[in-house]
């Protein structure tokens, strides 16, 4: 099939590479300009560079809403558009233009985790698996019929970075497998159960601020979700920002006020956690490694030279 590809960052790069390696013909690529947004500088392999290396025409756009782009798309005469990590709305006259419509590749197990940062949200929420879905684009974001979907398990120590590498390897088989079904003439696919749908916003600095009323199990997953190269989860100690680089759920149960720097346990320092921590039934968060405001990384047992005091959400 003749394919136009819309994509950005490493997700788009992997999709384009899969298309270039396939039997399909990539006739045009549309991608976003480089961004300084903290999350968009991560996994930033260039779709434009890859297209140009293979002699594929490239258009750079923030939004696909101008007449020049529309005319270029019509001239390209695509059988299908394939999109992955396109960051703005694609209007119906674009996604409905090709003979077979538009196939969107999304890094979640739709209908759950539509929208943005699905791997991070899924890890924080304790999902047992994550994956990649190829679905037909329609008027509602990430809501079209599912053509192909593959899942991978979330391990007990997986970080968001681990899950990125697991799922990005699914892009090629999911994309090319879905295109194979469409090229073979299949038109009926699996409708999404919209009663199970969830939609998540982009991550921001507010989302990585530690709230000590969360259960320790949730906080441990937050720390894993916000692992390098993502911005680290943080709190404040004595008015200064302190990033939590690694932590585990404590073996013991600790009661008191959430945020209290309480006890050395193994290689960590336990912080009291949970809205009902006063009951003494909760595990705490045993922080094992931190980064200070001036950029020093050190074991928590070296940073916390004495017990007592509090980690707070704000200075």
Automatic annotation (TrEMBL):
Highest taxon above the source species: Bacteria
Residues of the Formyl transferase C-terminal domain: 204-305
Location of the Formyl transferase N-terminal domain: 1-169
Membrane-spanning residues: none
InterPro entries: Formyl_trans_C (IPR005793), Formyl_transf_N (IPR002376), Formyl_transf_N_sf (IPR036477), Formyl_transferase-like_C_sf (IPR011034)
Protein name listed in UniProt: Methionyl-tRNA formyltransferase
Source organism (scientific name): Streptomyces camponoticapitis
Species lineage: Bacteria, Bacillati, Actinomycetota, Actinomycetes, Kitasatosporales
